[in-house]
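2024-03-11 09:14:02 INFO receiving multi-entity request
2024-03-11 09:14:02 INFO entity count = two
2024-03-11 09:14:03 INFO echoing inputs for audit
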Amino acid sequence: DADVTQTPRNRITKTGKRIMLECSQTKGHDRMYWYRQDPGLGLRLIYYSFDVKDINKGEISDGYSVSRQAQAKFSLSLESAIPNQTALYFCATSDSLIRNEQFFGPGTRLTVL
Amino acid sequence: AQSVTQLGSHVSVSEGALVLLRCNYSSSVPPYLFWYVQYPNQGLQLLLKYTTGATLVKGINGFEAEFKKSETSFHLTKPSAHMSDAAEYFCAVSTGGGNKLTFGTGTQLKVEL
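2024-03-11 09:21:47 INFO inference complete, emitting structure
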């Protein structure tokens, strides 16, 4: 079984709709991250969480919100989706005791029409 | 602030030829450096990492990278390319203990017969 799972894997939605992307991990890591990937831009950090009560904005947090429901679960919400949020979204985890290595989920491909 | 530059968004090599993917970083403190690989329709997988110690780092699938502080570089090499190496490769940098990664824009490697 995958250590980091993301649901859904693909989603097509319309402008203005609320969307939630979910991430779960069985690695027992305390830190979780959300990135978006766009062609030619690499991965950019949206939000990150060092534990359940510690949530921080990344470099491109506008238009997104997150919730850390438990150590193993970290969800990303788009309150009112817009077309330029069409992208591939990745969740990642890391262990604060293991320097800086992050483990990635398989990604969610989101299309906003 | 830290940043990563990957020279060449697309690199094409013949099967059996040397693979060289370039990465330069900018960091005001000693960096941790990473190479990740992304196969089609998959998440990112760690190839190798440099934290401290030996500057020549060996990774999976025959890849290696050398940390050169004087050149602020961390280029990825493989002596002999295989068709299965075709993928997108990302260099990333992290500083301090925050586990936050800054990614380059990626290099798409194509391997031709």
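2024-03-11 09:21:48 INFO post-check: Residues 88 and 109 of chain A are 4 Å apart (CA to CA).
2024-03-11 09:21:48 INFO post-check: The radius of gyration of chain A is 13 Å.
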